[in-house]
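Page 42, continued from yesterday. The earlier attempt failed because a stray header line got pasted into the input along with the sequence. Redoing it now with the clean sequence only.
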Amino acid sequence: MYDFLSYYVRDYMTAGPQTVTPETPLHELQGLFDRHDFNGVPVVDSDGRIVGLATKLDLLKAFTFTPDAMVPHYDTIMGRPVQELMTREPITVTPDLPLTRVLQRMVDMRTKGFPVVDDEHRVVGVIAREDLLGALRDATAGNG
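This time it went through. Structure tokens are written below.
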């Protein structure tokens, strides 16, 4: 178990993750969610720098309405760009952050993962609950 104390984000992150741009239509985001077991994807600019995070919850937000607003047709909603609903300025982590800190942050924030960014805020990976569970399993392998 003590091995976990020496693990870093770079050791367990998924490198080169799927990303979308602010202009990506919601139907393409939905397609990513359908094809992969993602809860969210980083939204990046043309230089690969993070500008937001688009989650399944953000996608659901597209369908909320108030009594004084008409609900648009499904295809109209799904044609909207990700930038209208994405979470701006998401919490990110760096590759050199200890996994112990990520674990604590994830539990405290009750989140499913974080984009991993380099010093220039370019997305280099993602770290998710499953990655931390794998690290914990690896840290205890052979220790009974």
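Notes: The mean pLDDT is 92.
Reminder to self: strip header lines before submitting.
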